[in-house]
Amino acid sequence: MHPNNVILNEKSSEPDCDPGKNGFEGIVGSSPALGRVLDQIRTVAPTDSTVLIEGETGTGKELIAHAIHMHSRRRGRPFIKLNCAAIPFGAARKRAVRS
What we know:
mainly alpha; 0% strand
């Protein structure tokens, strides 16, 4: 086994890396920065606030959105994913103005 894979395999068996721990399925890690993000999820999820999640491709924005949904009062309703980058700017602007 490649040395990096051995390290990842060892880390994935650590209790802090359990993807389902604390109700954050799919979110793996134990860094202080991730801890702050999880704290923010716990804070914002019970509210009716609008949340903007920004980040580079592949950073887990959808996982964070799903975690917020699963910790909210709306968890029994469908979670609808929307790729805003795929919406033409003019169409999004028209829709925002009408709302």
